[in-house]
Amino acid sequence: MDQTRQNIQRLIDIRDKAVVSEDEKITKEELLNLAREALQLAKECEILDQSKYETLQQLRGYELRSFSRFLESEMTMKSLVENLIFFCVSIITIIYGKLDI
Predict the structure, then answer these.
(1) Is the overall model pTM greater than 0.85, yes or no?
(2) Measured between alpha carbons, how far is 18 from 67 in angstroms, rounded to an integer?
(3) Of 10, 13, 37, 38, which has the highest C-beta tally within 10 A?
């Protein structure tokens, strides 16, 4: 569980870097590296809400597949930033089980 919390904190850090990416002049390659790291962290996190485990696990699987496909496609810098932010928020929400499902 401690590793999951550390991974969540790193996902938050990645999200924050994506949010300020225009101001800090982060390159597309740096953002792609952060996106790949976020994907790996999301795979390693445990679902914390065991009462909805199966549903949350399925949702996480959909998010992981969708974001993986997105990373393999041609994308603009803007779409990369927006999708990376959304992915981080979505995965954190799923891990904590803070969804009305």
Answers:
(1) yes
(2) 15
(3) 38
